[in-house]
Amino acid sequence: MALCGLNKMTKAHRSELLKAIKERFPEIKDRLNKEEGLLIFEIAVFTKFIQRKIDAGEKQSVIDAYEILNRFYLEGNASLVQTIRNAVSEDIDLSNTRSVERHWAFEALPEPLKAERISWFDFMGYKSEQEYSKA
Question: Is the pTM of this model over 0.85?
Fold first, then answer.
């Protein structure tokens, strides 16, 4: 998946990620703008938005958000890659509860992001969502 306007030698950067998010999810534009250019906080706004969509069962919105994260994880600069990896691994809750089914959101993760999450859970000694699905 190539980003429009970028040659293969150029890595995508923060402003391109934010543009993609704002175009697809204009409802969080104001919240993103309040973070005044701080990538980690902008990603936090986006992951909280994704969490709300997961908890509400809004599968297509979650898939669309994952596609944006995955594209910039694969084609972004080092700051984007690290921030997205950390957000997907640590900041999104994909475990089921008695009242909220979230396992579908783990299954919907694109393979590169899913692999990062599984790797992080293994490193930390946590039981991943992948293991729950085998139980």
Answer: yes
